[in-house]
């Protein structure tokens, strides 16, 4: 695996510095995923822009984070599972839902079960959703708009999960209490 730099706002290419400073100000620390993405400022900008767009979807904050957490767990991305564990807790999900998602199980909540099942299916099928899965998502009370909004979740996790896999992103100290280990099987 290549040794990708773990940038700071000062060591990053100039085109990435403003995004890194904004992320650090917003979060109170610089997530290492952004420090790695900074090597390619356009990747960092793409992720941060798309993340801002995803936050505006019609999915609730808990539904948004549930989809991201489920996809990250399925993609065995330890960094993103920890990060989205914090995100979904901050959005108001209870501990049982968080545990189920981290364990790659279906949450005991009809709406979140539908979101995570469809997000996982969409991710696994690379967008070639089976009609029965699409119908089940819609029958759970979601819309065609929300089907397409979950494409954004898959795109976000492709950007971050792949980056973490390639760059070997270490977990920030701030995220260590939320650490997760990918299953070996």
TrEMBL record:
InterPro entries documented for this protein: AhpD-like, AhpD_core, CMD-like
Taxonomy, superkingdom: Bacteria
Transmembrane region(s): none
Pfam family, one: CMD
Residues of the Carboxymuconolactone decarboxylase-like domain: 41-102
PANTHER family: CMD DOMAIN-CONTAINING PROTEIN, SI:CH211-175M2.5
Protein name, UniProt field: Carboxymuconolactone decarboxylase family protein
Species of provenance: Vreelandella janggokensis
